[in-house]
Amino acid sequence: MSCLRFFSKTATEVVANFIDSTEEFINLCSKGHIKEAFNRFKSEIWSDPTLFSHLIQWCTLKKSLSCSKQLHSLIVTSGCSSNSFICNHLLNMYSKIGQLQTAVTLFGLMPRRNIMSCNIMINAYVQSGDLERARKVFDGMTKRNIATWNAMVAGLVQFEFNEEGLSLLSEMHQVGFLPDEFTLGSVLRGCAGLRGLDAGRQIHCYVNERKERRVIRLNALSRNVIGWNTLIAGKAQNGLAEDVLDQYNLMRMVGFRPDKITFVSVISSCSELATLGQGQQIHAEVVKAGASLDVGVISSLISMYSRCGCLDDSMKAFLECEYSDVVLWSSMIAAYGFHGKGEEAINLFEQMEQKEFEANDVTFVSLLYACSHCGLKEKGMEFFDLMVKKYGLKPRLEHYTCVVDLLGRCGCLDEAEALIRNMPVKADTIIWKTLLSACKIHKSTDMAGRIAEEVLKLNPQDAAPYVLLSNIHASAKRWQGVSELREAMRERNVKKEPGVSWLEIKNQVHQFTMGDKSHPSSMEIDLYLEELASEMKLRGYVPDTGADMHDMDNEEKEYNLKHHSEKLAIALALMNTPAGVPIRVMKNLRVCSDCHVAIKYISEIKNREIIVRDSSRFHHFRNGKCSCGDYW
């Protein structure tokens, strides 16, 4: 019996020691101490190769190609390279760090693929814009799970193959899979893309029928923080930013304390909504919760403050971080780029290189974006070459889109078109519309017609080519061309996206459209704008009636210009905020040339900083000047 007790006690101690060692190893990996983790626990890793997954996760997070290759070599040496669990982690790693071809090669060599292997590849192909190969993997699967269907449906809808997405939903239902929140989010976007009201209503009815079942599931999920984080992250990933904030508030009301994972999702939703007040409140809760040192949380804060127009607060969050990584640096470079601070973005990248952080594909998207919005053509092309030659990164569609924008803004339209037609990835509507916008800026009517056809081939219901071509005709006073385009839009039931501006005052969001009379202060706003316009004209302001693309007399055009949505929002802010406080206005479309000039005058007359975020960047108006230097 004593001998049995001895062996029993020894076995218990061995298990306890192993658990302690594993926990310590995982803790070191999560903190980024990879070399220490590997050197101290080498024997444990060789005896349990699944521990390699924690090292792989770190490489994925850091997006370090050199580290990833070294780790892969060690896995091959260990003899566990045929392990499906480890192979799936490697597949995910290569797809996330922009090494799709390596992932494809590995996938082809895997002796035992499972559903997870195929799901990873479908997502990887979707992210690279290669729906044909994604569908080939999908069709070749003998078994699928709900994540497989979600990935394929979401991919089709993302690239505006809305009918195919809805057809796949029907097929999914026929084989016995019930759509979840992720599926429904994708399908509803597909209905919106098709203007499919009946289909949308059917989905809505289905959602309502699921409510009772969902309440039961919510009760089960919401028994711990992990369940709440799952719900919140799901809503965030489906773009339901307002629902995320509602869920977050409910989580706190029932007594659960959010953690760093919760905060990343919630702060990202504040970024989407550009609600500074809520973002600041959540930042305070981050500090109280002790999560203010987490790199992921800080990266989200940098993005949130940047998207809310507070670049200084982004920089403050960046500088206060004790431990940084490539994601943090890339977030700050992106913030500078979004605010038109190209030189600062480049300087930060150079500091990042000096500190030996390895730039990833996201870093280069941010750099190219910054260069395009500051006219730094030569520097932008240098970064594009550097990305490929020094860092060995394969350009994605986002990189090519930034380069097309860079060339287009500089007037190199032929070069931009040649790049699209010769690039190795399939063009989408966004890259063609980017070039189409450049045609409008440089008044290239012939090319605009050709490029508009390319957009309409991919999406016949896209309003952008009609609107941009119409604007080009209107600026040349070719009203017959404008009339024909508008008639074509009516016949094909193509709807133009209305311009909307919004701002936050005392935690309340106010929204305006052009000529909006629905606001309770509408009359006061009109009177205020009348007085402001008179004062602006005394200072030399002349309304740019050419910015109004309608065939009407100048007096009517001037009235329309005066009541553009951003001017209404700025007037409300001037009426309701203390002198000297910056005004922040968000707009879903590009700021027109007249509003851009007018806001410069307003900033000087009222001695206010006015920050306007339009569809492509931030404009900081101060003392009669704009940070963009009239290059936007």
From TrEMBL:
Electron transport recorded as keyword: no
Domain (DYW): residue spans on this chain: 540-632
Keyword Repeat recorded: yes
Keywords: Repeat
Highest taxon listed in the record's lineage: Eukaryota
A GO MF term: zinc ion binding
PPR repeats: 114-148, 224-258, 325-359, 360-395
Pfam families in UniProt: DYW_deaminase, E_motif, Eplus_motif, PPR, PPR_2
Family: Belongs to the PPR family. PCMP-H subfamily.
Gene Ontology biological process terms from the UniProt entry: RNA modification
Name of the protein in its database record: DYW domain-containing protein
Coiled coil start-end: none
Alphabetized NCBIfam families for the sequence: PPR (TIGR00756)
SUPFAM superfamilies xref list: TPR-like (SSF48452)
